């Protein structure tokens, strides 16, 4: 029983010391409005960041889709332009080689 008495005495001393410490310390706990305002500010900041991120994603998507649409619309035009330019280059090369062979025969 002596061990139980010692535990009881230690518990009483700890309780008295804790109560004495609580009486001496001046703890000022913030009001509930402080925490509500903190939560509201964090929520507003989160929504603001969310809107900024969503706006950036929309801008990237619009640029990507616009470039895709432009490339699809102008791909036939680019293909035809490339064919015309290559035909002109081959014709000019043929004319140049023909004139050079005619000049070398004479």
UniProtKB/TrEMBL annotation:
Show the Pfam families listed in the entry: DUF5345
Q: Which UniProt keywords apply?
A: Membrane, Transmembrane, Transmembrane helix
Presence of the UniProt keyword Transmembrane helix in the record = yes
Name the residues that span the membrane: 50-70, 76-95
The identity of this protein, by name, is Uncharacterized protein
Q: What is the lineage of its organism?
A: Bacteria, Bacillati, Bacillota, Bacilli, Bacillales
